[in-house]
Amino acid sequence: MDIEKQRLSIQAARLYYQSDYSQQQIAVKMGLSRPTVSRLLQYAKDQGYVNITIIDPSEDLDLLASDLKRKYGLDTVVLCNSPTNDAEEIKNHISKKAADYIHETVQDGDIIGVTWGTTMHAVALQLQSKPVKGVEVVQLKGGVSHSQVNTYAAEIVNLFAEAFRTIARYLPLPVIFDSVAVKTMVEEDRHIRRIIELGRQANIAAFTVGTVEEDTLLFRLGYFNKEEQELLRRTGAGDICSRFFDKDGTICSEELNNRTVGIDLAELGKKEKSILVAGGQRKTEAIRAALKGRYANILITDQFTAQALLR
Q: According to the per-residue pLDDT averaged within each range, which of 18-27, 44-53, 54-63 is highest?
């Protein structure tokens, strides 16, 4: 009798907990009464055949955030709970979390520096309007592309400016020049120099991190020749503001770095709020390297990425 009861209780438990059958559906399928099914499910729990674990996402996220802050010396870690470990799903959730965080953070008189890319575009699209005064929004790196691939550079800075009721300050240049001499000459222009200086003065910076995989956005934009791409893939872990660094967060090509227009990573790390928005399996190593380089003091990511960064 006990063996039969055990068999029936496990069968009922499988249907109820694994197949999402209702108790009435189980009763019909097993040829039992509904009260009998209820007693079998309770028996399965009492005998330890069923082990129910309740996971509180907010509690787990708080613990993960605390561990990340301690491991990487961050001021703030903001985590979201993504339902799946999928890149697009994660981007949707972290961009919403980042937009909310930036909305709450920005105050009168702040200077906000922003970069471009698909993650930052997703953040910009979800920004809510905030009635602040004296805020300025500036591009932190050049935003002109050599190809037809959309960087969303102008749209991002425009959306940020609209949200905080100000005008956008563009850096209307390629992000990487063919030579240091040409880049230096262009930076001597009074207008360009003023925009770059405004980026240095920004107390808030919002940016993401890129990878060195073949299909990464910067490679598709046509800035690098094959030899340069191979160098970056071999030695690099990722980029911020189109400045590439290795797994330890050290600039991996001074020659390419000297041709890049925009804020230096050393300056970025000194901001009052240097906000890195990134997540997903493909970006984990780049995020880890950026945190080792101390280029961000605030990280906004998801629970899957957080767990990977702690391993």
A: 18-27
- Same domain (yes/no): 216, 246: yes
Q: Does residue 168 sit in the same domain as residue 34?
A: no
Give the max Cα distance, the chain. Answer: 91
* Distance in angstroms (rounded) separating the CA atoms of residues 29 and 24: 9
For tokens 């080792």, the residue is 292
State pLDDT tens for residues 190-228.
999 999 999 999 999 999 999 988 667 777 777 788 888
Cβ contacts of residue 18 below 8 Å, gap of 6+? none
Pairing of strands 111-114, 136-139: parallel
pLDDT exceeds cutoff 70 at 57 = no
Say whether pTM exceeds 0.85: no
Are 9 and 43 spatial neighbours (Cβ–Cβ below 8 Å)? yes
Residue 127 lies in a domain: yes
Residues 169 and 157 sit within 8 Å (Cβ to Cβ): yes
